[in-house]
Amino acid sequence: GNSVTQMEGPVTLSEEAFLTINCTYTATGYPSLFWYVQYPGEGLQLLLKATKADDKGSNKGFEATYRKETTSFHLEKGSVQVSDSAVYFCALSDHGTDKLIFGTGTRLQVFP
Amino acid sequence: EAGVTQFPSHSVIEKGQTVTLRCDPISGHDNLYWYRRVMGKEIKFLLHFVKESKQDESGMPNNRFLAERTGGTYSTLKVQPAELEDSGVYFCASSHRDAATNEKLFFGSGTQLSVL
């Protein structure tokens, strides 16, 4: 069945460091791919998405490219801030369904 | 506009007891979803309501879990009797009927359930 695998955390970085959180997926067909973020004490928020191969989703300085050949959707940011500290979830959904399939989440901790 | 509200934010109960979680979706949202994250694992889909009807309940783990959405407004998720493995964070999400590709899916902040 469909699944998402993302790197285990926590990821600990200093402010202004480069961030990569790896995400790979297994799916039949052509899923849409997402990154959600959960800040402390808040609900999940959509960070960015891509709906087809080679699409790049971007938001708040984060970006991820839908790579069909490597079945990946890695999250990157050139310069992280303390306020980026949160848990990041990679997810996919099949076209025609409403269900999201999530990865295990990666906690990011950014220190000044 | 109020967001998706979940109550309680935390619940600690003993094995064998009953717990009821509540979700108030954004007003006017026909779609309502329940998800669960067991400690350290992925967030898993439980079920989907369209108004008061269960559209998909394939993720419900067993018959100890009962979800309702009477009147198509708020929803409750009851666990009876609770077991240790039911501990985790229960998320609710809602969207408009015609929302596409989950772009306009709004999540609540979750209920942390601890079964001792």
Explain how this protein is built:
The complex is a heterodimer of chains A (112) and B (116). By secondary structure, chain A is an all-beta fold. Chain A contains no helices and twelve strands. Chain A has strands at residues 3-6, 11-14, 19-21, 23-26, 32-38, 44-50, 56-59, 62-65, 75-77, 86-93, 101-102, 106-111. In chain A, strands 2, 5, 6, 10, 11 and 12 form a six-stranded mixed beta sheet that branches. Chain A has a four-stranded antiparallel beta sheet with strand order 3-9-8-7, with no helix packed on it. Chain A starts with a strand and ends with a strand. By secondary structure, chain B is mainly β. Chain B has strands at 5-7, 10-13, 19-24, 31-37, 43-50, 53-56, 65-68, 75-79, 88-95, 106-107, 111-115. Chain B is globular, with a radius of gyration of 13 Å. The chains are: A mainly beta (112), B mainly beta (116). At the A-B interface, strand 5, strand 6, strand 10 and strand 11 of A face strand 4, strand 5, strand 9 and strand 10 of B.
For the secondary structure, the number of strands of chain B is 11
Average predicted confidence as pLDDT of chain B? 91
* Uncertain residue ranges of chain A: none
What general outline of chain A do the C-alpha atoms trace?
A: globular
Q: Roughly how many Å apart are the termini of chain A?
A: 41 Å
Helix-strand pattern of chain B: EEEEEEEEEEE
Low-confidence segments of chain B = none
Main sheet of chain A? 6 strands, mixed
What sort of overall outline of chain B do the alpha carbons produce when their principal axes are compared?
A: globular
Helix content of chain B: under 10%
- Beta-strand proportion of chain A: over 45%
Strand content of chain B: over 45%
Cα Rg of chain A = 13 Å
